[in-house]
Amino acid sequence: MRILLAEDERDMNMLITKILKKEGYSVDSCFDGEEASEYLRGADYDAAILDIMMPKKDGYKVVEELRNRGSEIPVIFLTAKDGIQDRVKGLDIGADDYLIKPFDFDELLARIRAMTRRRGAHTSSIIKIGDLEIDTAARSVKRGNRNIELSAREFSILEYLAANKGRVLSREQIESHVWNYEYEGGTNVVDVYISYLRKKIDAAGETKLIHTVWGTGWTLKEG
Questions:
Q1: Torsion-angle region of residue 93: left (phi > 0), alpha (psi -120 to 50) or beta?
Q2: Which distant-in-sequence residues (6+ apart) come within 8 Å of 219 by Cβ?
Q3: How far, in Å, are 41, 90, 151, 193 from residue 114 at the CA level?
Q4: FRET label pair with 53: which of 24, 35, 88, 165, CA 20 to 30 Å apart?
Q5: What is the pLDDT of residues 152-198, one digit of tens each?
Q6: 126-220 adopts what CATH topology?
């Protein structure tokens, strides 16, 4: 999943970014509200984490503009303001959740998972395609009785395919969701990772789940 983080406190920004990347998320980070608005206009994110009191434009204004454009991207506000009216204002403007500083990072990660599940079709952390089971909370994968070890990047690609099961995703879509703005890789990097996944997911004798649609992209589905 690709996440935008807008937090003007640089040490906090760096720490949250590091933790999110360790969990396998692709992260674009910025330090003020104007930058956040530019990022949100220029890319398709799965979620945004926004500080409220930012330079140039506050988080309320960023979300207000986002919702006025018709975007439904899930948003968590981070703030030191714990008054009930502040929380009501944030939720009324269009935020999905509200986390008061200081907060526990495990709670932030749990709220991201819950928020993105609500946006999609899944109400639990388990996604099943045939005998393939993906636990997005535990970041574990098994097929039948076989546990499958994946790198963080492999898991991110598989999770994105699973969240869009049956839908054909292009190379550009996968690259955009799994890598961030700073990525400058080769043109075939997605192909390479799909090859890695095939070797692990579609072992010899098992029904193929990862399908190539020539000239278009890949899809994860039964049969």
A1: alpha
A2: 161, 164, 165, 166, 167, 168, 169, 210, 211, 213
A3: 24, 18, 23, 27
A4: 24
A5: 889 988 988 988 888 899 888 888 777 766 665 556 888 999 999 99
A6: Arc Repressor Mutant, subunit A (1.10.10)
Return the CATH fold of 2-119: Rossmann fold (3.40.50)
- In the chain, CATH 3.40.50.2300 sits at 2-119
Q: Give, for 50, the enclosing helix (H) or strand (E).
A: strand 47-51
Question: Rounded to whole angstroms, what are the CA distances from 193 to 29, 52, 148, 154, 197?
Answer: 25, 37, 15, 7, 6
Is the full-model pTM beyond 0.90? no
Helix (H) or strand (E) holding 53: none
Pairwise CA distance, residues 17 & 46, whole Å: 15
Distance CA 101, CA 93 (A): 20
* Contact in structure between 31 and 51 (CB atoms under 8 Å): no
Q: Which two structure tokens, joined as six digits, stand for 14?
A: 């760096």
Helices 84-93 and 59-68: crossing angle in degrees, nearest 10, is: 30
- pLDDT of 205 higher than 80: no
- Tokens at residue 173, please? 């879509």
